[in-house]
Amino acid sequence: MSDRIFGVVCLLLAGFYIYSASTIELGFIETPVGPRAFPYIIGTLLALGGLYPILVPDERPDWPDMRGMIEIVFAVAVLIAYAFLLEDVGFVIATAFAAALLGWRLGTPPLRAAVSGVLISVGIYVIFHLILGLSLARGPWGF
Amino acid sequence: MEALSSLADGFTVALTLQNLFLALLGCFLGTIIGALPGLGPSNGVAILIPLAFTLGLPATPALILLTSVYYGAMYGGRISSILLNIPGDEPALMTTLDGYPMAKKGQAGEALALSGIASFIGAFFATWGLVFLAPLLVSVALLFGPAEYFALFTLAFCTLGGVASRNQAKAAVAAALGIGISTIGVDAMAGVDRFTFGNVHLFSGIDFLIAIVGLFAISEVFLFLEHRGQGEASNANMKLGRVTAPLSMIKACLGAMSRSTVLGFLAGVLPGAGASLGSFISYSIEKRVSDGQKTFGKGDPRGVAAPEAGNNAAAGGALVPMLALGVPGSGTTAVLLAMLLALNITPGPLLFQQNPDVVWGLIAALFIGNIMLLAMNIPLVSLFVRVLLIPPRYLMPAVAMISFVGIYGISGSTFDLYLLVGFGVAGYILRKLDVPLVPVILGTLLGGEMEKSLRRAVQISDGDWSVLLGSPLAVGLWAFAILGFIAPLIVGRYLRPKIADSTAAEGADPD
Q1: Across the interface, which of A25, A46, A106 has its CB nearest the CB of B225?
Q2: ipTM metric
Q3: CA separation for the pair B147, B167 (Å, rounded)
Q4: Is B185 helix (H, G, I), strand (E, B) or coil?
Q5: How many domains does chain A have?
Q6: Is residue A27 part of a domain?
């Protein structure tokens, strides 16, 4: 079933891709192969490739159970929140929170997760920013 | 012998203090990355690329750093295979078969020393193979026009998808997805924007580094979350004893090592095969050749030496098509190609002519790195063993955060971070569905060039598409491409179930 859904998604994606390709403006210069041709080929390939799993699906992949699914959704939420807040609160604080939350969900006891989060964040800040001079997000407090 | 004098020039490039230090650092990091389960060469190198890039290293030093990591990871993978029975990365999988039984017999030290020597031999001779084979391939590649290049790119996709996946249709889908991503952004040839939907961030296209780090590294974090608590390093037999191998044991394995070096190198040169296939073939052939007393699988030293020589030789072999043609032979070399492209260097025949210092400096650095790795991996192996004891629950958050730092460092835009998370989720789902990730990566890397060569070829012939099959060389490449796509359907029935059964297929790091 998963494979069939995957195949349908591929077909829809291919359809959308080819449709968008057909709306690409052509330039002023007349060329034998314009900017649309290659996307048409690739879209067709995607559609053909998507047909196969619909017709001959593999066995069901081993999807995570409810708990695993929630864990992953939570992690995605943490990472999106991280990207959202990074420039508002600065690198060190955002990273400490994100690393601590991920560590906690990976099975570290809460207190140790918090400590390891701070260590990871400060460690990256020291090595990459202070020593190697990489520019990291600066928050209102400059770190 | 022109190659030798170029190589000598290369040594003068590599033997600067900075480059030696970078090689040492790369070897060290690489061994750790290889040894840690869950961090393989491709995602290890993927995380480091944005960093090397944002640190502003020039091409040669950056490439030296990352290829040292690549070679180092091939050495490091064996450590956890032997001690924990968990392959540190996919190519080290075959090493568990005899390595772990040896460790259980109390021969962990011997197994580590022997596999270190085998790794050295495999990598050393493969690097020589690179020295002589790459210039040869370059002289062929100079005959290529756009039509031949288009055929060559197609060949790369056909064979790369072929061996890496169990389902050719899914490999094709993966390639189409990757190439599709590469078409986003302003089309350089016609000057119109495509698939940007008016979003400013998409005008310059999606940076392939984001795709690579997201698909490989971030999706790995999700897999770990799902399997949390399983497969953690536990009460393993960490007693090493002395890390030397008796001379008689080395002698007994010399045959195995030399056979495996040749096989591994060939497997590496073939586009799309890579180190995993190298170690797999080496082990299977060695088992067939010398398993007279049915000792393989029960701790036969030759069963440790063969796959290790094989995967290290394949790592060297995979660099041949990457450097000479700009078409990578494996997942990790695809990532290295990304590094070169990010530095605005296009590999291929012109690289050898225009930037010989980069190519030969790199090759010389590989020789130096190899000797460093041998030194690190035998006397200092206990240091790396200690690293193995870091549980993934501390490691994975750090990996995730370093990935974010690297991507943010390139552009300083949070839009790229959202994309990164998106690619992470996509990578997780694709892995679950058993869709290979390497064609996706290759598509994002090569899609642009592929389209350009197609349009150039047809443009030159004034709209006549038959030009794609216009020369014997192009026809030959197409024939190979079709063969490469079809052959796994037949041969694969023998080969792949064995590889797949023994890997956790979803978690497998493509090289």
Answers
A1: A106
A2: 0.93
A3: 28
A4: strand
A5: 2
A6: yes
